[in-house]
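Moderator note: this is an archived Q&A kept for reference. The question asked for a predicted structure of one protein chain; the sequence and the answer are reproduced below.
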Amino acid sequence: MWKASPRRLRPRRAFLANDASEALLSKFAATPLSLATSRRCFFFKRKPRGALLGIEGLETPRDFPRLAAAAVQDARQELLGVEKRPALELVSALDNASNSLCRIADAAELCRNVHPSQDFVASASDAVQAVAGYMGEVNLDAEVYQGMRRAEESSDFANIPLEARTVLHHMRVSMEHEGIHLPESEKVECLQLLEKEQQLSFDIIQRQ
């Protein structure tokens, strides 16, 4: 249902606006030395540290695990009793939970692939694993699955938007492919294998 697989990210190609750069250099050349120097000092003034990737509260490596744990907790709360909700409410709850989780997981995935600090890489990797682990649990949650089946078979299913019907159907089919039918003991083993696969995939990418 939910995927959280590592992927190799291509660095964004940097570019130089030559015309703007030449104009800026010409302006400095035509400016008195003292004024140009003061402007250069102002231009390179160190800015205060802000939120990484625009995520509030993400400023240091230790913030990643905390934010991941908070996202998982928010998702758990969102999905509480979801199996008993009407079809449209069920889809909305799953979508809200997914947004909460992916907001942190996507940022962590990017960070652990491109950030120059190994402290950030390590903490971002922990965050990815935490979110992916919870996603794996939901993908094998029998109550969520039964709630989806019940919603699809309900009388109001035909009245919800086509997009919501399609999402619900594909989520249910995806859970069947993920192994929702497995005995509980095998589900535990499946989750452990998925966690190992995640870590091995990331390790391979890091060595390339």
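Archived answer notes: Confidence is low (pLDDT under 50) at residues 5-45.
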